[in-house]
Amino acid sequence: xxxxxxxxAAIHRPANTCANCGAPLEAVPKHASRLVESSGGEEEVxxxxxxxxxQAEARAGEFHSRWLAQRPAPPPPPKRETRRAQAxxxxxxxxxxxxxxxxxxxxxxxxxxLAHLLMKTGxxxxxxxxxxxxxxxxxxxxxxxxxxxxxxxxxxxxxSRAQDRLSHLL
Length: 170
What we know:
Helix content is 29%, strand content 22%. It folds into 2 domains: 8-70, no CATH class; 83-166, no CATH class. Helix 2 (83-98) runs antiparallel to helix 3 (105-121) and helix 3 packs across helix 4. It starts with 29 loop residues before the first strand and ends with a helix. Strand 4 and strand 5 form a beta hairpin. The longest helix has 17 residues, at 105-121. The strands form 2 sheets. It has a 3-stranded antiparallel sheet. Strands 4-5-6 form a 3-stranded antiparallel sheet, covered by helices on one side. It is of the alpha+beta class.
């Protein structure tokens, strides 16, 4: 018998494993649950959760109540920005960095990577490469403006740093 006092405080949330076999229950949308008296001799009520394979165990023995528990669905993954919105954010960052009077080496790495990302997303179109000066020229398809970027050799460490600076845009 369930005590009349505030014993509901002892009834815990669903367990993450089956009370019978120990199988994980996080991915199971519905599973059997029941309330039984604890084996400690006290008049305490304990919740037990069972995987679908152990449903017969959930019905066996003495219990106060039994039900089919439902776990909430996992939240949907965050929506990714559309290609056009992502290209606009990349373009804005490109022009912000290129408007600096003397960009740092990190900014030059980021500009180089941004220009190639914009070329991939359809925002920029490659026009020419000046091998002597080490300058790449791109056409901004949105504004029809020519943009020049210094060609840099990115080793894995520098590339990783540039990617980290742009991670909020991707």
